[in-house]
UniProtKB/TrEMBL annotation:
Assigned keywords, A-Z: Membrane, Transmembrane, Transmembrane helix
The keyword Transmembrane helix belongs to this UniProt entry's keyword annotation: yes
Name of the featured protein: DUF1003 domain-containing protein
Transmembrane segments: 45-62, 74-95
Pfam families in UniProt: DUF1003
Length: 180
């Protein structure tokens, strides 16, 4: 159910009426301006614009005077070209600003990646150096072979000591004097 309209009060000021302008998406407008800037910067646009201007000038100089819509000074053509330039310049600047923003973000991302890669490279360099140091302290196969061979030669050269058989320990004498 709709609310009933309140009558305006005369003892209070009115709410100012706000002009409601149409809303637009800045990203969509930016993409649109880039598309126009790309179109204005092509050879195709220059050829078409040149053809239109030549037709305009040709029509307004060669056509019968009753059919001419822009006489000799071409005031209307100048107005149209000025209007086109006044809209094209801000659109081109907007497109350049958006491209500069993209370039700045790409540069920041490249710097971040380069810093991360540098940190990774430095870490790997330190790890490789520590592995080299650790490998220098590890016994190699050739070193172990040479040491085992040296120990085997020492064992072979050592005179074998004759082992004396162990003599049994004396058993306690059971016939010893005992106090009875």
């Amino acid at each position: 159910m709709a609310e009933p309209r309140r009558a305006p009060r005369l003892d209070q000021p009115r709410e100012p009426r706000r002009l409601s302008l149409p809303r637009f998406d800045p990203e969509s407008f930016g993409r649109w301006s880039e598309a126009i800037a790309r179109a204005l910067g092509t050879a195709k646009f220059l050829v078409y614009m040149s053809v239109v201007i030549l037709l305009w000038v040709g029509w307004n100089t060669l056509a019968p005077s009753g059919w001419r819509f822009d006489p000799y000074t071409f005031t209307f053509l100048t107005l149209i070209l000025s209007l086109q330039a006044s809209y094209a310049a801000p659109l081109i600047l907007l497109a350049q600003n958006r491209q500069a923003d993209r370039d700045r973000l790409a540069l920041e991302e490249d710097r971040r990646r380069a810093a991360a890669q540098k940190a990774d490279t430095e870490y790997l360099t330190r790890e490789i150096a520590s592995l080299r140091l650790a490998i220098g302290e590890v016994a190699t196969r050739d070193f172990l072979r040479s040491e085992l061979g040296r120990l085997a030669e020492e064992l072979e050269e050592r005179p074998r000591k004759k082992r004396k058989p162990k003599q049994p320990e004396a058993e306690p004498d059971d016939h010893a004097d005992t106090d009875a």
